Every structure is written in C-alpha cells, then in structure tokens.
C-alpha cells in the first residue's frame, strides 16, 4: 500500500518552491521550564516563500498542476490576513503568473493594523491584485466574474480553493509527513504525538495520511482555530478519504487522530489568552515566533495537554510549526499592552 502511494506522489506534477527539509528542532529551554515530554518543532515556518509557512508544501503540488495545465494566472481566496493568500502571491511572483486574491472580512476588525499591515502589506508588495469583499457569497461571485473575464480575454486561470485544501494540496503534507518520518527515525525519537493547527484541514489531512503511509505510529492531535470540531472534523474526514482514494491507499485509521476546538476561543482570528501566553513563552524560551490566529492557539493547546498530564513524559512530541508570523504585525496592539 505504502509503495503505491509513494509512487503516485512521485508521479504528480510538482514545482519546487521551498527549502527542504525544514529543520526538526528540540525545545530544550522550554522543557527545562515546563518538564513533561520532549517537544520538537517541525519548522515549516522556515519553508521559504516570503516568510514561509505551511502553504509552500501545498502550492508545490497545486501550482505544479497549474503549470502542467498551461495556466498563466491564479485566483484564490482567504481572510484579509490570510497566510495562504500571501504565500500564493509569492509563488505566483516567482513563477511569473498573475495572482488575484479574493479576501473576505471574516474577522470583525477594521483598524489600520489589521487592514494595512502584516499579510495584506506583503500581498501588495508581492504584486497580487486584491479584491476585498464582505463574505463567502460575495467571494464566489467575484471568482466567477474574474474567471469569466479571464476566459473572455484568452487567459487560462487556475482556481485554488481556500487554504489550498483539496486532494492535490493535501499531497504537500503527505510529502511533509514522509520527510518528518525520516527525521524522526534518524534523530531516534520515540514519537507519541503530533500537534497541528487546522482551519481548512488540508495540512492535518496530509499529516494523518503521511503518518500512516510512513508507519509513524503517532497520535495526531488537531487544534481547530477556524470552525468548531464538528465542522473541521468532517472536513478532515472527507479530505483524508478523497486523498486516500487518489493515493490508492486505505483510509487512515480514525483512532490515530482527534480534533479539539478547545483552542478556538471566541472565534477565528480572535486572540485568546492561552494563545497569547503560548506565543510569549516560545518567543522568550526558544526565540521562535508563533502567531495569534493559528500556531499560538495550537501551541497553547499543546501546553494544555502537557499541563493536564495527557502526554507521555518519557516520549517525544512534534509540534508542526505552520508559520503565520506576519499576523503578529496585524495584531500589534495586543502585544503592546
Ligand atoms: C499559519 C497557519 N497555520 C495553520 C493553518 C491551517 O492550515 P489548514 O488550512 O491546512 O488547516 C493555516 C491556514 O491558513 C495557517 O496560515
């Protein structure tokens, strides 16, 4: 099973956009302070492509497909401070593709930090065309308008779903898990758990499948930061099933992953105290930057699991650092206080 899946993966069109492998780094000072299991960071925040992050891996497969189909431009979606949008803009700049970003006001903020700094500033710098709309209905209308206009003028545009989470994007994290499995083996880790943030759930789906293909034997704990666990869990299940079908492998054993929305707090893009404390702790012990929307909340969840004694203290835990640090600037005021 694993051989067929690996062959399928190797046969897919892919364009290299990142720096691989990303480091797997122990958090020794943090552990001295906390006790508990050894925590390792899978540094996908160092993946390259305009400040890095998890989208680099997905975009390698998505844009590999776009180029194979002869596309000359990309349209994608996100919230105003979307990291996916920023990384797509960077990839398009590198590949000479046009980039239209349809950004929704999913987070109730209209201050200058949120609307002009962080990822939005970088999107503009990277040469993307920004279309700011109220909600997802307006976003899909805008997509249809841009796509039809492109067709009318002989363009071939490639649409990428929010977060790049379809069965092509998920392959990025199947590949990422295989990379992680090699590092776990060569560093001699006794891995019990992988913790990762989820919004559109493509990253988590790829990790679940890749962990199964590589026989990582770890529990994947998914921290919801966008929707409640019921919604994220359903997305995750369907992405795992669709990608497993493409890979020709069995659907991963559902007992190997679990989904929690304890980290979400009041909602997407609304910082939590636990997330903020996690950001400050990792910054001051390890010199590593998390973000208030995704990784801060997910790392706070990991700290909570440790505090509750839910993780085996004798074994290793990997936190997949999915990036997002430009978001720190959009949330400047919470750190200034
Ligand atoms: C920094 C960061 N971490 C995690 C995620 C979640 O990834 P996914 O949408 O694949 O669940 C995102 C998605 O936008 C992100 O930007």
UniProtKB/TrEMBL annotation:
<protein>
    <submittedName>
        <fullName>Unannotated protein</fullName>
    </submittedName>
</protein>
<dbReference type="InterPro" id="IPR036052">
    <property type="entry name" value="TrpB-like_PALP_sf"/>
</dbReference>
<keyword id="KW-0663">Pyridoxal phosphate</keyword>
<dbReference type="InterPro" id="IPR027278">
    <property type="entry name" value="ACCD_DCysDesulf"/>
</dbReference>
<feature type="domain" description="Tryptophan synthase beta chain-like PALP">
    <location>
        <begin position="17"/>
        <end position="323"/>
    </location>
</feature>
<dbReference type="Pfam" id="PF00291">
    <property type="entry name" value="PALP"/>
</dbReference>
<dbReference type="GO" id="GO:0019148">
    <property type="term" value="F:D-cysteine desulfhydrase activity"/>
</dbReference>
<comment type="similarity">
    <text>Belongs to the ACC deaminase/D-cysteine desulfhydrase family.</text>
</comment>
<dbReference type="InterPro" id="IPR001926">
    <property type="entry name" value="TrpB-like_PALP"/>
</dbReference>
């Amino acid at each position: 099973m694993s051989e067929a899946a690996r062959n399928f993966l190797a046969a897919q069109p892919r364009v290299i956009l990142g720096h691989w492998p990303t480091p797997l780094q122990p958090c020794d000072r943090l552990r001295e302070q906390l006790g508990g299991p050894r925590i390792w960071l899978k540094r996908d925040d160092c993946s390259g492509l305009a400040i890095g992050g998890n989208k680099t891996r997905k975009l390698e497969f998505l844009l590999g497909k776009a180029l194979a189909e002869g596309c000359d431009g990309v349209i994608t979606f996100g919230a105003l401070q979307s990291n996916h949008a920023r990384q797509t803009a960077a990839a398009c700049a590198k590949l000479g593709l046009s980039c239209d970003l349809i950004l929704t006001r999913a987070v109730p903020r209209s201050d200058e930090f949120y609307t002009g700094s962080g990822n939005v500033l970088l999107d503009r710098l990277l040469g993307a065309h920004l279309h700011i709309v109220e909600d997802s209905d307006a976003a899909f209308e805008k997509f249809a308008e841009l796509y039809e206009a492109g067709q009318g003028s002989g363009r071939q545009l490639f649409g990428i779903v929010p977060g790049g989470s379809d069965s092509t994007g998920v392959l990025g994290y199947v590949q990422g898990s295989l990379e992680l499995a090699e590092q776990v083996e060569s560093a001699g880790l006794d891995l019990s758990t992988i913790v990762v943030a989820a919004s559109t759930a493509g990253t988590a789906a790829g990790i679940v499948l890749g962990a199964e293909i590589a026989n990582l034997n770890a529990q994947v704990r998914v921290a919801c930061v966008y929707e409640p666990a019921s919604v994220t869990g359903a997305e995750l299940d369907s992405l795992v099933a669709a990608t497993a079908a493409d890979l020709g492998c069995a659907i991963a054993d559902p007992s190997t992953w679990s989904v929690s929305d304890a980290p979400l707090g009041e909602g997407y893009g609304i910082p939590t105290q636990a997330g903020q404390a996690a950001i400050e702790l990792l910054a001051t012990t390890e010199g590593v930057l998390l973000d208030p929307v995704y990784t801060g909340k997910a790392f706070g969840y990991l700290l909570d699991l440790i505090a509750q004694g839910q993780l085996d203290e004798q074994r290793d835990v990997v936190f997949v650092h999915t990036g997002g640090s430009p978001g720190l600037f959009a949330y400047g005021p919470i750190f200034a206080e």
